[in-house]
Amino acid sequence: MSPYYVGDLEMSVNKKVAIIKVRVMHCEGCAKSIENALRLLDGVSSASVEFNKRRAIVEYNPEITDVDKLRQAITDAGYDA
Ligand SMILES: [Cu+2]
Q: Are 58 and 20 contacting, i.e. CB atoms less than 8 angstroms apart?
């Protein structure tokens, strides 16, 4: 699957916000499962998934985790990111 990673905003040294496209999700329930999967990751301080825009917005500490791990968590939950 091609990466649909969209952007990374630098908030401060220890905080970044990643905007990750989620290619396939079917309902708000999917969005909630993805949110829950992301929130369980070490280094993630907040995660919200916008179902209508098919994207996840994740606030994370780049010293602990990275976008590849965020995307992996979405993929492991059963969705293409
Ligand atoms: Cu669903």
A: yes
